[in-house]
Specification:
There is one protein chain. With 264 residues, this protein is an alpha/beta fold. Strands 3-2-1-4-5-7-6 form a 7-stranded mixed sheet. It is globular.
Amino acid sequence: MERMEALTNYYATHNEDARMTSKHGMVEFLTTIHYVEKYLKPGMRILEIGAGTGRYSHYFAQNGYDVDAVELMECNIEVFKANTKEGENITVQQGDAVDLQNIPSDQYDITLLLGPMYHLYTDEDKIAAMSEAIRITKKGGIVFAAYCNSDMTVYQFCFVRGGINNEQYSDLIDPDTFTLSSTPREIFALYRKEDIDKLMGTFDVERLHYVGTDMLTHFIGNAVDEMDEDTFSKYMKYHLYICERADMVGATNHILDIFRKESI
């Protein structure tokens, strides 16, 4: 199954717009916003690559920033446009993260790459997408790249859901290291920190933060959803306290790698 076919089938039936609206889904969103806002200054330009239905893009546009967005899937672009409110200085165009040649180099202060690395299955495509994100970012600008964590999938899919004993997936699970592989059929590409470090070692960038954006929230999702606002606020405070700790950051579904493009 080719990448475009797989993604079309997935996003045509998946309510991407609702994914981060529950309390437990909001943890990833609020964490990402928290870190982006560390570096945002008035007048900065933002590009979101792989914007989905535009939850992040619209948030920043509604807060006064100029936002351009690129999204691969037509169905997501339709929702993106429908969600646009009056007064937002925002654009969206169809495009693929691995080839953004229509966007000039060194244009954006903040570049968000929060979805494409989930759906790239070859080293060539991963390097191409990261190269493009860095290229269009201004010298000294900040890139935010999101990944799906392989080891949390080992827990959830292999053991909680029994995939470890499903012969259909035997070729995708290393029996000794439990390294997981993916094809377009599985939709999500998976990473360990060493995979991200290897990828980023090919670029001239400075890592600023390596963040677990939801940590173990998935495992206690029902409890998080039932929290009152005061308790949820305390939960977010705790989460933000631990989400970069070296002894805990691996226990997360989603990873956010934040780095600065070289300025020379």
